[in-house]
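Weekly structure sync - notes
Attendees: PM, LS, DV (DV joined late)
Agenda: review two folding runs queued last week.

Item 1: First target. Sequence and structure tokens pasted below for the record.
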Amino acid sequence: MNETRYDWLGDRWVIFAPNRILRPDNYRDPSRPKPNLTSLAPTDRITDEQCPFCSGHEQQTPPPTLVLKTPSAHDWSVRVVPNKFPAFDSANESPLCTAPHCTSTNNSELFLRKQTRGGHEVIIEAPNHIQSITQLPTEHAALIFEAYQERLRYWRSVHAMRYAVVFKNNGADAGASLVHAHSQLICTDFLPTDVLKTQLRSNEYFQSHRRCYACDVLEKEIQASQRIVAQTDSFVALCPFASRLPYSVSILPIEHQSAFEECSPCQLVELARLVQWTLRSIECEHPQTAYNYVLQTAPLDAHNPAAFHWRLKVLPRLIKVAGFEWSSDCYINTVLPEEAAKALGRHIPTGLSEKSLSQSAIA
């Protein structure tokens, strides 16, 4: 059973999941070839005989919790399955503890520990052995975001779940273990410290200004246009003013939305196109660069929907986080966001809009 321990000085919980060391790792095995999968066209029907995510290998994963398909798909387009090596014990297998610290009687104040419950799922993004969603037709990519929505809605309905995050690790330097395009969803019965801090800061700003912080930032950013990478009818992609990592991009809805699940089907298609173009611009500017993206939606428990604004953050792994950052949690960024936005914007079609996105070829 996995365990969570409390770092009192840092005011954070640390998750211990020894079972995750057993998960397969394409990048750790030097005998396996690592082809440049991003050069393949989306119509190339390729599989890897050792890949558990490829079509035909469905028996190597747990039974799916969700299956979606495009009208032209032979079998499936997107599958969501429980992670075989989860970070948390399943919320559906045993009763949840709802106490804030859930500590046993033999814990001292200095050595708090608890058994946490949650969910850990894998979103397999395509039946073919591809590495990037930029290789997919936009219609297919939109299904990935629909899968995020459906599973987030499900976990909001599970008793005592407080936090959920969707994330993608693409490339070894971003923490990926399998090459096949996939993302993950983790939910927990506690709010991580940084998430709670962001929630409190958002609420403080709203109480002082009666406006959402992100809405005010977006209004100024769109007016200035110095850090905008691309903009569509409903979304904007920008390099944040105080980016911690070079070429970081945040994608946000222009109109206020608290939870990602509020996006309409049409907006999901628009978002999928913009995410594809954003990732494509990073792939063009820095070929073969690993990256993470993180979908930050409203917490699952009580929150002020007027104060929280969801976003998708793309974090290229162009530098190593080193001693100063680890010692201080203060980052040194080597690229100004204005320069990053200009460089990435060169790879975006001129006059980008929902209409021009739909007419532009992705991959």
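Item 2: Second target, run right after the first with the same settings.
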Amino acid sequence: MVEVLKVSARSNPKSVAGALTAVLRENGTAEIQAVGAGAVNQAVKAIAITRGFIAPNGIDLVAVPAFVEISIDGEERTAIKFIVEPR
């Protein structure tokens, strides 16, 4: 089971990067979901920061973006998901 991290426009990219690094070290792969431009911006920043955290271990990360339909308060929304894994 891939662990899903949800990111909002108010998420701190460094905090998300720390959580993402922990999930990647534990599971080897992770998924980030973001709804809206602000949230996607924070998610991309978090992925960039995570690459810096993990690069000294010789791991090069890649993020594959895709659309996903999610339900928020019973309402269907389109989110961007990033599958983050080692290259």
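Discussion on item 2: The chain has one domain: 3-86.
Action: LS to circulate a short write-up before next sync.
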